[in-house]
Amino acid sequence: MRSDTSESYARNCVPGSIENAKVNGTIVLCENKDPDYSGFGKVLEMQYNGGVGVIFIDDLKRRVASTFKDFPAVVISSKDATEILSYINSTKNPVATILATVATPKYKPAPEIAYFSARGIAAVVKSHNPSFGPSEIKSAIMTTASQLNNDKSPITTHSGATATPFDYGAGEMSPTAPLQPGLVYETTTVDYLNFLCYHGYNTNTIKLIAKSIPPNFACPNNSTPDLISDINYPSISAKLNKKQSRNVATGDCNSIVHLINKHR
């Protein structure tokens, strides 16, 4: 640690906080609790000072893939750090090796919700609409999402091409619009089960793959692929032939969307 810096800065490997001589030729163990400095910035600092590797202690960042380019760096949990610190304090010359990244097939438990996942908006919608169930909350978020950027133009991809629902899903969600979404779609368990029926699965097969189904459920007698679009879901798809158009009601008797196939 440099004499003109704090211990906290040094423990977090803040640029300029550690003497170059102590970094040169070593693998440095860093806490990663200071949000003002990125992990990548710390890596660059260690690399500039002759470090050969960095071990970050960060319970959040260790759960997502980190990118440090070609510099040897790894992110560990605070639990793992306890063992490493115990080892460091037990010897005058601690040594370490950072191995190449390898895939871990069939890792358990998986999946898990990433720390940066947006949970807040659903909770806010529920607090303003206590009667909404999960599907109605989802509907409110989806139907009020925007497909336009802040130039009021269609959202584009990183290459500049116009994005599609396959890129952005329902669009960019709004933090306030879902609170008063107007029409919402309630998708029930039976809706999803019927969806499978319309795809050609019979009742016995569905009972094998579904975790739980309502008592006495049975596929409708008229189950055909033509009914697949009947699922009460807040999205729409339409297959149109050339020069063909369709009117689609949106739930409000005064609101009709006119779909036209522009491809010729």
Automatic annotation (TrEMBL):
Please provide, alphabetically and separated by semicolons, the GO molecular function terms listed in this UniProt record.
Answer: serine-type endopeptidase activity
Q: Name one GO cellular component term.
A: extracellular region
User: Which keywords are on file for this protein?
Assistant: Signal
Name its GO BP terms in alphabetical order.
Answer: proteolysis
Q: Does the keyword Chaperone apply?
A: no
Could you name the domain of life of the organism this protein comes from? Eukaryota
Provide the protein's localization.
Answer: Secreted
Record Gene3D superfamilies: 2.60.40.2310, 3.50.30.30, Peptidase S8/S53 domain
InterPro entries (UniProt xref): Peptidase_S8/S53_dom_sf, SBT
Question: Record's family?
Answer: Belongs to the peptidase S8 family.
Name of protein? Uncharacterized protein
Source organism: Linum trigynum
Q: Which taxonomic lineage is given here?
A: Eukaryota, Viridiplantae, Streptophyta, Embryophyta, Tracheophyta
